[in-house]
Amino acid sequence: MNILFILLPCFVLLILGYFLYGRLVARIVKLNDDTPTPAVCMTDGVDYVPAKPFLLLGQHFSAIAAAGPIAGPILAGIYFGWLPTIIWIIIGAIFIGGVHDFTTLVASVRHKALSIGEIVKQYISKPAFYLFLCFVWLTLIYVIIAFTDMTAQTFKTVIDTQSFANAVSVEFGPAVAGSSFLYLGLGLLMGLCLYKFRMPLWLATLIFVPAVVVVIWVGPQLPQGLLDFFGAITAKEWTIVLLLYCFIASVIPVWLLLQPRGYLGGFLLYGTIAAGLVGVFFGGFNVSYPAINLAGFKSLFNDKPMLPLLVITVACGACSGFHAIVGSGTTSKQLCKESDARLIGYGGMLMEAVVALLALSTIMFLKPGDATLKGDPGMVYASGLAKYANLLGIDFNLALAFGLLAFSTFIYDTLDVCTRLGRYVFQEIFGWQSRNAQYLATFFTLLLPFVFLMAAKEQAYKIAWPLFGTSNQLLASLTLLGVSVWLWRTGKNALITIIPMAFMLVMTLWSLVMMMVPGIKNIVGGKALDFQGVIMTVTSIVLFILALCVIGVTVNVIRRLKPATTHIK
């Protein structure tokens, strides 16, 4: 069967979800354009700046749609098969993820663009606020762990001539590493041109966007001595380099690297989406991978049930707690009017589902024994995009380099943003306000990823991904819990968030129990745990206890409160 016949109905369902269910949710929260948003009434030209809806949609989308909706669906598709992965992406995005992102954005806008943590403090309690911050910080830690390791593995990529048609045997990793450093240099130069030399944005776009294409081409053409030097660096050493980058990128001004690099990364994101759509619509690729991969699932997860594991593996492609941090952190401060929230919050999540489906399509035309499937998610994704781009006459090797750099770029966007946010949260937990405190908070935020990645074996992301997915989805469920209390106390129908919240809580707590039980049994039985067992068991127990504490505090508060509709927005 042609891939188009499977994915086209999925795209139609997402469109219908936006216009039907998205409109229903918007009616329940009662969007009102007569009420000025914080961006309008608190404009300061720095953080609070009204933005046109499509411009803000692009910024919001590029912030939430990094490597998560690519790696998660690919891993889930390989483990479970493409059919259950597609079903969860569609249902999750329309009825859970879209609702989560939209209601969080609206709640923040109606509370002077406060973070979701501050809203939890206002409507539940201060202890719940601190517990919530701990969840946010732990989620960011596992994002850093998973994506740092993925990038380190990408820099060690070697292409086998028998794995890809028309490809030559070459170490692509060093070339991608070289292109990555050049790309980051472009971001720094663009930031200086925009803010120090006052270059107009349109002129900077005309100069630096084509320069990204040049950087992709230049990477493999770098002097052989330099490529050999990059190739000699081990994955562990690349990990140290990347964490050092995270430290620097999170403490320097946002205008110097984060903003311009994110702007350029947006064009790479749209380029990969375009390549994916071309491949799906015009490639004529047929499905070869199993719809349900029972063999792969049983070999990896033994007799454990598929449902909770599927939910936490896909993660960002269907629902992500990280989106709440973005939506209530930066997007809410730029929303021009309330009606724009449906396009940006709900629509942005459905666009991410499209990215997830296109990523999943890169394994659907592969046969179960294809050597590509043994590679990391970035390699699977890049090779699929290369085949799609090859339909346009683009050289396969150049397209492959583009795909690998694009994937690494999405990870850069995730890494430095998460490190910066982790530093903010750490400082907020301990009340650190001084200039030197940001360096100390950044150090502690990166310390756990460093210890984890140095102690873990190769491909540590396979250990970290279930923990990242679970903590991320648990954060989403607790965010929905906070939003549900807000809706209930303001006299609105909270079922739109209570039902998704209950489902996500069950799935994530179930997953945590499945992760902690084997370790506990081994400890009770007097067996020693390996590194992976210790990390899985300890983290699962901590997350489980934190979740129960938040739920307990919330229930206790609700028992003592009644719905209020007069003084609370």
Characterization of the model:
It is a single chain. With about 575 residues, this protein is mostly helical. It has a single domain (about 5-560), classed as Amino acid/polyamine transporter I. Helix content is about 75%, strand content about 0%. It contains 23 helices and no strands. It has helices at about 5-20, 20-30, 40, 55-65, 70-80, 80-110, 115-125, 125-155, 170-195, 200-220, 225-230, 235-250, 260-280, 295-300, 305-315, 320-330, 340-365, 375-390, 395-430, 435-455, 460-490, 495-525, 530-560. The longest helix has about 35 residues, at about 395-430. The chain is globular, with a radius of gyration of 23 Å.
Brief digest:
The chain is built from 23 helices and no strands. It has helices at residues 3-19, 21-29, 38-41, 53-64, 68-80, 82-109, 116-123, 126-154, 172-195, 201-218, 224-232, 235-251, 258-282, 294-301, 306-314, 322-329, 340-364, 377-389, 396-430, 435-455, 461-489, 495-524, 531-560.
Superfamily (CATH H level) name: Amino acid/polyamine transporter I
**Radius of gyration computed on alpha carbons:** 23 Å
Number of domains: 1
Poorly predicted tracts of residues: 161-169
Any idea of the CATH topology? Answer: Amino acid/polyamine transporter I
Overall pLDDT confidence:
87
Give the strand tally: 0
Helix fraction bin? over 70%
Strand content: under 5%
Q: What would CATH call the class?
A: Mainly Alpha
Number of H/I helices = 23
Describe the largest sheet.
none
**CATH architecture title:** Up-down Bundle
Name the helix and strand elements from N-terminus to C-terminus, one letter apiece.
HHHHHHHHHHHHHHHHHHHHHHH
Shape: globular
Euclidean distance between termini CA atoms: 51 Å
* Structural class by SSE content: mainly alpha
